[in-house]
Amino acid sequence: MLLKTFGWSFAITALGLVAAVFYGGWTAFGIVAILAVLEISLSFDNAVVNAGILKKMSAFWQKIFLTVGVLIAVFGMRLVFPVVIVAVTAKMGPLQAVDLALNDKDRYQQLVTDAHPAIAAFGGMFLLMIFLDFIFEDRDIQWLRWIERPLAKLGKVDMLAVCISLVVLLITSFTFAAHAHQHGGAHADKAQTVLIAGIAGLITYMVVGGLSGYFEDRLEEAEEREHEEEEEAARSGKQRSAVVLAGQAAFFMFLYLEVLDASFSFDGVIGAFAITNDIVLMALGLGIGAMYVRSLTVYLVRQGTLDDYVYLEHGAHYAIGALAIILMVTIRYEINEVITGLVGVILIAWSFWSSVRRNRALAAAGEGTGDKAEVSSGV
Question: What are the TM regions of this chain, as residue ranges (predicted)?
Answer without folding.
Answer: 6-38, 64-90, 115-136, 157-181, 193-215, 241-257, 269-294, 315-333, 339-356
